[in-house]
UniProtKB/TrEMBL annotation:
The protein's role, per its UniProt record: Choline transporter.
Reaction(s) catalysed (UniProt annotation): ethanolamine(out) + n H(+)(in) = ethanolamine(in) + n H(+)(out); choline(out) + n H(+)(in) = choline(in) + n H(+)(out)
Keywords recorded for this protein, A-Z: Antiport, Cell membrane, Glycoprotein, Membrane, Mitochondrion, Mitochondrion outer membrane, Phosphoprotein, Transmembrane, Transmembrane helix, Transport
Protein name: Choline transporter-like protein
UniProt GO molecular function: antiporter activity
Family: Belongs to the CTL (choline transporter-like) family.
Highest taxon above the source species: Eukaryota
Organism expressing this protein natively: Ardeotis kori
Amino acid sequence: GTPQKYDPTFKGPIYDRGCTDIVCCVLLVVAIVGYVVVGIVAWTHGDPRKVIYPTDSRGQFCGQQGTPNDSGLRRRRHAQRRRVLLSHQICVSNCPDRYLTYLSAYGSRAPSELEYYRQFCVPEFTNLQKAPIEVLKDKECPAMIIPSTPLARRCFPAIRAKKGVIMVGNETTYDDGHGRRRNVTDLLEGAKKANVVLETRQLAMKIFEDYTVSWYWIIIGLVIAMVASLIFIVLLRFLAGIMVWVMIVMVILVLGYGIFHCYMEYAKLKGEAGSDVSLKDLGFQTDLRVYLHLRQTWLAFMIILCVVEVVIVLLLIFLRKRILIAIALIKEASRAIGHIMMSLLFPLCTFFLLCLCIAYWASTAVFLSTSNEAVYKVFNETACQFSGQTCDPETFSTSNVTKLCPDAQCLFAFYGGETAYHKYLIVLQFFNIFMFFWLANFVIALGQVTLAGAFASYYWAFKKPDDMPAFPLFSAFSRALRYHTGSLAFGSLILAIVQVIRVVLEYLDHRLKAADNKLAKFLLSCLKCCFWCLEKFIKFLNRNAYIMIAVYGTNFCTSARNAFFLLMRNIIRVAVLDKVTDFLFFLGKLLIVGSVGILAFFFFTQRIKLVQDTAPSLNYYWVPILTVIVGSYLIAHGFFSVYGMCVDTLFLCFLEDLERNDGSAEKPYFMSPDLKKLLKKTNKGQPDA
């Protein structure tokens, strides 16, 4: 590309600008209107209760007021699976707690047995004197019931293992209701997945318990991370050079201590029983504390930390000269943020808008997925030509099906539909995902172009801060919305298309996992890699294009081209200087997260004697520790993202400054004195600003 020429009228972000990419702006508005319509239609037809609450074999909700199965009871009800084949479901107040067959209940001398059994029959069953053979033939009651436990408002066999023996309700066999004794292992296959869910539920409950007793300390840890990030940012404002070197040394020391701690734990476990078991032999365990008793775990941690330590030290050795220029750029960014302090709070606005996008997408997805209608199918135990066909429960008793297949029943099968709306539900879900990506990327782009406009107004002010506008952040935000909504929509649209393609590829990869087509898997892996790289490149290009839009007010394509050519003309500076600052910011986030994480580790494992009795007793101490670490990273990333955008903006303006000006009286440099000193540049005939 052609370098920018000197323009005596250019004094920073151009105020006399026009609307750009109007077509994309109109397209975004139309898409948002369509998205609202889709949401209204989904909320009209959808019913989230279908996801939460179980139904009986007639498709009616269990235990919901205003439904046929409510009966005025407010107790939570469960869907009882009546047979091992899971073909019938009824709503009950409580799960069965004993083994019992209908024949034994009917023949029992105690009337309470049959009365207890009646609650597991269809609601219409009232004739307790009816012959058992007729009751079972009409499928009014199950042939037998077994001890069950509630799980997600459903009843599943209470299967447990005692000394390697599978048992249900302290029994190893049961009467199937037809006079035959069967082994409880016959129930195992039908409830296998339920047991996995039950174990997951138990794990989730323990994690929830940990959160209930540690949430107060988690919030304190996150507050500490926020205060540490804020102090770090303020110190960068005044002591950028010292803070960067302190940060580098601290990161090396923190990693060094991590290596030392892992070695001490590794050495302490030597000779202990069971400590030499390999991770492969142990397999997956829900109690992650088990892994901390293995020497191999600490050896793996130590190797990982050693590799990270060596990589960081080597990078520092090779980039030591460029770090000086990066420090000057960070100092300039600190000054810019010091004059525009509101920029540190602006990510909260972006975060709020992103939360709105996520909430709208999630609620629309749930309502769309639950907007199907109840579909009824013909079920029978003998051969029948109508088996599996759709039926209407209201007219089923008078249809020809009951005449040709006397044992056939019209039961609820699943939620679906045959209307045009139901046929295109998958299209609406796809549109929902696409609009989520588009709007989320638009919100992020709006935040980037706003910060870029504010920081660019600082750089191109010859006398800082006197030549800066009164409210640079508000001015940049209003310019972005008034003139460049279309350009932001254009850039976010391109990124959204690539992200949707990646989602489709992940879906296809998930579907092909069970297939043996190695060629298809290879091609799919190549496509996933290519689109991942493409997404990263588009994000990089968009970010720099938004800076050009904020400064010059040009359309997206022009801005992207100018930014790309400007970076290509200074590829060495981009590859080294800009990435060095990114690396330094990463070290800053690593320092904050590592420090808060180590503090949380010592606190929750009760290794700090001063507050040893204050730390809560936990099932898994890694739950609050990981929460604090992830939360600290997000908080630190929020603060440093402002710094990152500031550095990127100043860096692009710095490259423009070098091309536009030569330091003469007519073309003075706008860069700071520190940058001019490092680059051996001067403004001839004028004092440095």
